[in-house]
Amino acid sequence: MPVPAELGGAGASLVECCAVQRRIGAADPALSVGANMHLSSMGFMVEHWKRQWALGLPWTFELTEQPG
Known about the structure:
Oligomer: single chain
Number of strands: 0
Largest sheet: none
Distance between the termini: 26 Å
Radius of gyration: 15 Å
């Protein structure tokens, strides 16, 4: 959900993600915690990738690409 559209995600803002998390948490707290762990790790990866591109280090993407 919060992954930018240019990276293939929905491009949701922080406010939109929080609103969805709140609704999920009201219905199923455990699911909300699990989803939050996923969203946090995805956010970290997106920020890392953006920083690598901004620093001119696109070669780091080659390390993560799978042949196929």
